[in-house]
Amino acid sequence: MKAPTTLSLLGLLPALTSAATLTQITTPFGPNPRNVTFNLYVPDTLAPNPPILVNQHWCHGTAEAAFAGSQWATLASKHGFIVIYPGSPNAADQCWDVSSRETLTHDAGGDSLGIVSMVRWTLDKYRADKSRVFVTGISSGGMMTQVLVGAYPDVFAAGAAFAGVPFGCFAPAGDNAGQFDYWNGDCATGKVTHSPEEWGAKVDAAYPGYDGWRPKLQIFHGTEDEVVSYVNYGEAVKLWTEVMGLSETPASVVPNTPVAGWTKSVYGPSGWLEAYSAAGVPHNIQNQESTVMAFFELGCTSGCFAWGKGSPCSGQASASSTSTRPSSTFSTVMTMPSTPPVSTTTRTTSSSVVASTTTAPACKTVPGGIPLWAQCGGMGYTGATACANGACTTYNPYYAQCVPTAAC
Ligand SMILES: *[C@@H]1O[C@H](CO)[C@@H](O)[C@H](O)[C@H]1NC(C)=O
């Protein structure tokens, strides 16, 4: 067995005072048929029975870029939780496999199983809290977030997906059916739409017979997303309200939250689904760590997680619920504070894929420029900044990358 390898950082976060680093785990950690790389951030001081957060990078991103490009490691050091940064094995585009039958099915393989194996290994090694495993990501990482909460509802307590697509939307039809890491242009451009029942059937098929806990979910999407169409925001709301058994009519709509121009819609009486529509925002949507932190209760120190199962935090009484959720893999019985989002509806499986009719305008090219999705800026970055195609867009002070424009 090889010792864990320390990865070099793209840039140091100013607020990161911990000596902890991102570490690649190369020892066997469970089934990982696609060879997803396992990068782990364990802060020097862990909370007792710590929560775990999985943070997936975007296409052409890396675990290191996700590590340096968000506040999650800093927040993990402050609050004592563990962060797993998986790395895509898909050399062609460094996207996540969100299309294969394996990845879309519980414990069947694909990139999703590799990531879940990392979670299971970390739960065991660090005596982490299996009732508080969370997942987030942007773009392809947002797509994988929806894959994981759909196919592994027993593993994750909640997810937060930025600029992703609904579970199963990237699964290709016809000759390409079942392909790993398939870029589904119809889905990305908003041409794949389904009824709530049709979407729900895809999630049902991911884990046949499962009728237990459904993770909470936050969805964030820019209305001007030029890479992953905003249509996918509405489709995701259809899918998850169906899966959670919630009304498609929001219980509340809050303008200018968490930032001006963004609208928060809350579904269900217990807020199991939160959808944030970011007016005027393109694909490079800003991470909203504090909003996600609050939803996951990752900063909570007492009386927290009343919506979850068990009593992971000091002072937490068992939830004042009359509804006990069935549990297939958790060792403790889960109790819920309010209506559990479990749906047992029988669903139809027909699909509708609308044909493409749009023609893209010409794309400007800068010879020798930086390719799409590669880094073009950010604190500590010293390379060239001109993109070959598209525009150099800043995700946060630490990371900018070339992303397609409407023309590219
Ligand atoms: C994963 O790695 C193993 C060992 O190197 C190799 O045999 C296997 O083909 C790899 N799988 C894929 C999908 O690349």
TrEMBL record:
Where does the record place the region Disordered? Answer: 316-350
Q: Name one GO biological process term.
A: xylan catabolic process
List UniProt keywords, sorted A-Z: Carbohydrate metabolism, Hydrolase, Polysaccharide degradation, Secreted, Serine esterase, Signal
Against SMART domains, the record matches this protein to: fCBD
What residue stretches are annotated with the CBM1 domain?
A: 368-403
* Compositionally biased spans, kind Low complexity: 318-350
Q: Where is the signal peptide?
A: 1-19
Which EC class is this protein assigned? hydrolase
**Entry's transmembrane regions:** none
Q: Which InterPro entries match?
A: AB_hydrolase_fold (IPR029058), CBD (IPR000254), CBD_sf (IPR035971), Esterase_phb (IPR010126), Plant_Biomass_Hydrol_Est (IPR050955)
Which GO cellular component terms, listed alphabetically, does the Swiss-Prot or TrEMBL entry include?
Answer: extracellular region
Q: What is this protein called?
A: Carboxylic ester hydrolase
* Organism annotation: Parachaetomium inaequale
